Fold:
Amino acid sequence: MRIPLIAGNWKMNTTVAEAEKLASSLRDILDKIEGIEKVLCPPFISLTTLSEVLQGSSVKLGAQNMYFEARGAYTGEISPLMLKGLVEFVILGHSERRSYFGETDELVNKKVQVALDFGLKPILCVGERLEENEAGKTEQVITRQLKGSLANIEPGIDLVIAYEPIWAIGTGKAADGITAATTIKFIRDTLANLWDSDAAQKVRLLYGGSVTGNNIAEFVSQPEIDGALVGGASLKTNEFSSIVGQSVAIKRQGT
Ligand code: PEP
Structure:
């Protein structure tokens, strides 16, 4: 049984004071919801404060990115050594990192390897652009991203993969549940080919892209989809709590 997971990617939003306030209000509600992993990914600068806010809470922390070296002359970067002990998860290969900061599958692969070496759990993001989707290239793009990002990674790891079609991120135009589930099944089949079926079954596969309290049911009611990576809606206490609450209720009905 895979434990469902909802992660909130706050992106470049919230000052430290705003992050503290948001995390405190989320903690009070989310601690009452069991049977699902809840992860907040605030900006780096708020991680220390939030680790204090979330002490003793079931709500976990994740980073939004990470460099692949432990220390050195890499101005502006944050290392796995700095994150170890502070966060349990790290988002890697988000499409915004790929498109605005030129991250390649090869770079993401190094980051995945190093995150695992440091005991951090990667939330690896994959997904196709609109023109690739329209050209029927979704599976081709995802295969390339999975093979590239997971090259030389041993099976059996505690990995989360978020399928995030780029055309659905921040646009208000989410994929429909069946289409998302079909691609997510394709991801699991690809992992089974890359590794083996047991290792593929252990990986939690999330959907991401304009998830809200109004459409989360469509995704988590699909057995293939283990949860969601949520951007904009994760900045609103009621919306994010509703996404978490609905997800666990629906997953319980399905077991
Ligand atoms: C994201 O950035 O990972 C994301 C899914 O954003 P949004 O929910 O805002 O589309």
Remarks:
- The chain has one domain: 5-254.
